[in-house]
Amino acid sequence: MKTPMTQALVANNLPVPAFTGLTPVGSLEAYIGAVHQIPVLSVEDEQDLARRFRDHEDLDAARELVHSHLRFVVHVARGYSGYGLQLGDLIQEGNIGLMKAVKRFDPEVGVRLVSFAVHWIRAEMHEFILKNWRIVKVATTKAQRKLFFNLRKSKTRLGWLNAAEVSAVAKDLNVSEREVLEMESRLSGRDIGFDAPSDEDDDHAPPSPAAYLVARDEDPAQAYERRDSEADQLELLREGMARLDARSRDIIRRRWLDADSKVTLQELADEYGVSAERIRQVEANALKKMKALFAA
């Protein structure tokens, strides 16, 4: 049977990589070890492969692009480990996003594939998490799972539980009364599709969220990419500042980052007891180091 990742490959006219089986075929540890053995592509090789796939539909080139970035999907997936979902499932969903990114990647834009693909990878993982979040939150422990199944069976023949029934269920299943009430509330609710149209024949059907959310001028996808890009750049800025020596860091901060109290080269020169030209040189060298980090 084809996995969702394999189906996505076929749907996007991309080759099925050797490692798409994931955990059904072997252990997750073996898969992660295998993908980390795949060499990272240089800029030149990556652009060459991307052009071959874009211009000539070279599936071998697409396969190599996918394989060389599977390790990055594992890295992103580990960042979502706190959601209670299996790492293998998150990796598989992220790999689907990677396939979509490879198909849409334009090497002429001047960015690395990993910078472009991260948005597609995270988007697939986010969709998977949102689809499974309610199920995971309903029953995360062994006691809650037991409560979930027993309470579901009871509610097929009972309405809302009274206080005595709540107390009896809690005592029988060794959980708190609060957990019983919370589980009952979850089981009584239902999910609403974000853009599902309401039934025109049903006057009591609640509208979907898309019907009453405030419209924004900025496209949601673009807004997400912008915020994600800003967060990445802020992290790079912190990393770049941390790599500078104390004097260079102080000069960059006071010359470029302190908007309310920006100082001149001469003011810094007087403070450090050197010429303004020396301060300019230190500033230029520091900016050069930081720009190299952003361009990597």
UniProtKB/TrEMBL annotation:
Gene3D superfamilies (UniProt xref): RNA Polymerase Primary Sigma Factor (1.10.601.10), Winged helix-like DNA-binding domain superfamily/Winged helix DNA-binding domain (1.10.10.10)
Motif Interaction with polymerase core subunit RpoC boundaries: 89-92
InterPro entries: RNA_pol_sigma-70_dom (IPR014284), RNA_pol_sigma70 (IPR000943), RNA_pol_sigma70_r1_2 (IPR009042), RNA_pol_sigma70_r2 (IPR007627), RNA_pol_sigma70_r4 (IPR007630), RNA_pol_sigma_r2 (IPR013325), RNA_pol_sigma_r3/r4-like (IPR013324), RNA_pol_sigma_RpoH_proteobac (IPR012759)
Cited Pfam families: Sigma70_r1_2, Sigma70_r2, Sigma70_r4
Region (Sigma-70 factor domain-4): 240-292
DNA-binding region: 265-284
Cellular component terms (Gene Ontology): cytoplasm
One GO BP: response to heat
Keywords: Cytoplasm, DNA-binding, Sigma factor, Stress response, Transcription, Transcription regulation
Keyword Ribonucleoprotein: no
Ranges for domain RNA polymerase sigma-70: 89-102, 264-290
Record localization: Cytoplasm
GO molecular function: DNA binding; sigma factor activity
Region Sigma-70 factor domain-2, annotated ranges: 65-134
Function: Sigma factors are initiation factors that promote the attachment of RNA polymerase to specific initiation sites and are then released. This sigma factor is involved in regulation of expression of heat shock genes.
Similarity comment: family membership: Belongs to the sigma-70 factor family. RpoH subfamily.
Subunit structure, as described in the record: Interacts with the RNA polymerase core enzyme.
Name used for this protein in its record: RNA polymerase sigma factor RpoH
Organism for this UniProt entry: Luteimonas marina
